[in-house]
Amino acid sequence: MQTQFTDTVYRHSLQSQFTDTVYSHSLQSQFTVTVYRHSLQTQFTDTVYRHSLQTQFTDTVYRHSLQTQFTDTVKKTQKLSSSEPQRLKKK
Asked: Model-level pTM greater than 0.85?
């Protein structure tokens, strides 16, 4: 089951804010997603390990094209599933 949603990613290492389109392959507590980085003017694939399904959480992003590892703070902008009706609206 695939779900498409948009995350707002705050890149602390790049000191800029932009939006990624994320295609989630699972709705478990930890899963892998394919991320297409639009704001870098280049399309490539990251492997993201989701450690939580809360409104705001930390992802560890392994950038295969940059050969470096760093942490992003991701804030959800849409619901993950109908079983979490209003959780993502909480600030």
From this structure: no
